[in-house]
Amino acid sequence: MGAGAAGALVAIQLCETAARRRIPFDLLLIDPAPEAGRGTAYSTLDPRHRLNVPAGRMSCYPDDPGHFVRWLCHHGEPGVRGGDFAERYRYGAYLADTLGRAIMAAQGVVGVRRLRTRAIGCHWTTRPGADPSARLELADGGTVEAHHVVLATGPSRATAEWAPEDLRGSDRFIADPWAPGALDAALGQRHKEDVLLVGTGLTSVDIAMTLNRPGRTVHTVSRGGRLPQPHAVDPLPAAACTTPLPGLSLAALRAEVRQHIGRVMRTHGDWRPAVDGLRPVTAEIWASMSTAERAEFMARDGSLWNTHRHRMPPATAESVGRMRRTRRMRTYQGRLASASARPDGSLTVSLATADGPRTLPVGWVVNCTGPGLRLPGTADPLWRSLLDQGAAVPGPLSMGVATDHGRLRGADGGATRPLWTLGAPRRGELWETTAIPEIREQAAAIAEAVLDPWTAPALPADGGRAPRRARRPMDTSGFPLSTHAAAATAYRLGVDRLLKVRAGAPRALRRSVALDPGFALGHAALALIGHECGADVDVSRALADARRAVRERADDYERSFVDVVSRRVLRSPADGDAALLRHLEEYPGDALALAVAVPTIAFSGLRDLDGTTALRVVERTAQAHGGGWFHTSLLAFMRQEQGRYDEAGTLAERALAAEPASGHAMHALAHVHYERGDHEAGRERLERWLAHQGRGGTHRAHFSWHAALHELALEDAAAVRRRWAEQLSPGKVHGVRALVDSGSLLWRARLAGAWQGPFPIGDVLDSAPAAVLERPATAFVALHAAIALTAAGDLPGLRRLRVHALRGDEVQRSVIAPLCTAFEDILEERWAEAARGFERLLPRLPGVGGSAAQREIVEETLLFALVSAGHRDAARDRLEERLDRRSSPHDRRRLTALSS
Predict the structure, then answer these.
(1) In what residue span(s) does the FAD-dependent urate hydroxylase HpyO/Asp monooxygenase CreE-like FAD/NAD(P)-binding domain sit (predicted)?
(2) Closest to 308 measured CA to CA, from 85, 52, 81, 86
């Protein structure tokens, strides 16, 4: 009952949890509003009304904090950041859209109906041998029955009991400014009278901005006379209090909080981190207070707390400050004492203020006192019916209702009815419970409580016999899957395409989770290829789905794999690598995990600096794979990384004979030809493979890049230009691949002097998402972002990338950040400094991932810097060393030029 923000959040969790667990039920949403998800708070169309919580903390999902920010990025605001304050109307659209998607995903499992009316009564009946059920009376005269009821009614309407009787009867008194059309008269062109807003909280601030117009003064009055404090433009992290606060007397609590704020002020110069640091323990502190202490806090400290805890967005604060500086907004500490009508219909109001009586002529008085807190005496017929029959009782200080973790307590003291509430009705118990970060947690808990009785039981904890289960389908490697046959078939197809480096893997994996939203491995594989392969996947969302699903339905193998993906996405590279090694130790036959471990063409691999760990993994897992084509392909790649080119070539040819479409084997062979200096043969073999078995490959651009390397070595500039136009230009290559292959080729061509005329690096940058350029998730992608930005001469972009790297994992901090500095030196023609920077970093480059041929671009840039700095001997030494390893007409010509 109620389909605003709180109701939408519960409905989203119910639909998604039921779809994962395959629990069928009917969901009924009862709310008179034209659109679900908005409620009163998010229906405003005024763009000046913004959220008072940053977008990064407004996700629908407790375990996916960036969901709202990503939604904004995909819905017309690509540059939004987590610290931005979005328009409230946009958040309403987000809630409605997310709810719609959840309902669509649960089709066939959850039947959803919506009634545009109000519930005005709820009466419980219990029949012998049956669960309790509710009969809901509706405002339109109808009734419905339900087995579980969630009261998502939101905050109570503001009361006007404080207003003088004459004022309450005036058509110039606006009792509810959020009611549709309530402010129309005050906004009319004919009326420019001043207005009085009773209340100085966030509601008052919003209404003041709406009613602001030239020639009008907006007066505001409240007992405290305080406006909300502003959020910081550049906020600092929350600072937790070092002293345990729950259990202290109110006097001791005040003293400790003051000391905590003082310490934070001295350290950071700002009180906000101190207040934010209290948020995790606010409910615990409130629960530890006695009734008398809570009452005293409300009377003495409540206003001060609210103005500092519930703050204005910076843009709102700037607007309010401008209104106050120009005297178009005035604030008083006091109360409205009386109001009388004037001959023209306007009002004369008398204020009793701290500075003495004050009389004001105003056109309207607007009630901005905020929602009512106390439940007894409520006019809401739904809550009245529950109170009258003893199904609900008031909470502490008569604020809201009493609950047991959201389940309503009745007059008998128990919480026996399947009746829940969340948000504002729990304020008496929790105090802080009206913001989305708290409500979304409560919504998830309610969904769990409602659906848990229908969830299939887990295996017996006492070692008893488990119920007999149907045989589970297998994955590509022979491990059982916790899903049904159709989803398993789609998953196997997706993994098979990943192992062969062929197109279609994301589509097949999406199909697997569409068929079974509770299939953990399907979600995990999607998160993996989004994070490491640049697939068009909402990585955070897929990972959150995988982690939810694996808690509900999975075996040890599946839990281990999801843990690997979680750590690679969320933790440091070292942590992710350690988890992957543990997984392969336990499950050496897992081909997908092995593909992730080896830095070939599909994944970044294990990021050890000496490059031996991946080799040991491949050798140790050989027995489990029995010489199959996939393992042989990976072994071929590792042998060429060791410089054992003859053996690598033999293994690659063996794998291709068994599976001609094996992209990993062809990739190993491409490296063998390049490192041997067999440039003509290498280009020809790649051309044949691309024209036949490689036509459906997902990394065709990378094989084209390999062919272009041969052409650069052969100094065939015309062939490089043709290959760019036909196979590597943006439009033919997209996203991360455009950055890694197309962008790096352009930079190599420029360094080699093989590119004359217009330089299309701007097209590459335009085809890559801004987040990939400025906030790349892996060091390997960050390296190529730095190269592309350097090729474009984008010095500010390089500096932003360096700042991001300094906030990243150890490899980004220690390798990518100084690499950005060296590339900056290139752009500013500090050649010697650039050369020294690259020289220091070359030994650490393997930790970035990728192949030696890909990382060689840094050495190419180093050679360019050495020659530009006049260090010809050092450049000659490097070229001679390379020519000792492999033949290259281009390197031979450069060496000759340096020796002349």
Answers:
(1) 2-154
(2) 52
What distance in Å separates the CA atoms of residue 672 and residue 659, rounded to the nearest whole number?
19
Tell me how many degrees the CA angle 97-99-101 measures, rounded to the nearest 5.
70
| Gap between the Cα atoms of 759 and 724, Å rounded | 12
Return the structure tokens found at 121: 């009564």
Closest by CA to 382, choosing from 1, 28, 37, is 1
How many residues make up the chain in this entry? 900
CA 822, chain centre distance (Å): 32
Interval 521-560: pLDDT, tens: 999 999 999 988 878 899 999 999 999 999 999 999 999 9
Contact 374, 157 (CB under 8 A): no
- How sure is the predictor about 455, in pLDDT bands with cuts at 50, 70 and 90? low
pLDDT band per the 50, 70, 90 thresholds, residue 466: very low
560 and 589 in contact (C-beta within 8 Å)?
A: no
Distances in Å between the alpha carbon of 846 and those of 550, 588, 811? 33, 24, 10
For the chain, give the percent of residues with pLDDT over 90.
Answer: 73
Q: Token pair of 746, please?
A: 């352009």
- Short-list 532, 486, 481, CA closest to 506: 532
CA-to-CA dists, residue 571 to 135, 563, 587, angstroms? 50, 11, 22
* Residue 538: closest CA among 77, 64, 60: 64
Percent of the chain at pLDDT > 70 equals 97
Three-state DSSP class for 342? Answer: coil
Instruction: For the chain, give the mean pLDDT.
Output: 91
Q: Report whether 85 contacts 231 (CB < 8 A).
A: yes
Phi and psi dihedrals of 420, rounded to 5?
A: -125, 160
Dihedrals phi, psi of 756, to nearest 5 degrees: -115, 150
**Among the listed residues 382, 157, 399, the one whose alpha carbon sits nearest the alpha carbon of residue 391:** 382
Separation of alpha carbons 218 and 347, rounded Å? 14
Contact call for residues 335 and 350 (beta carbons, < 8 A): no
Rg for the chain (alpha carbons), in Å? Answer: 33
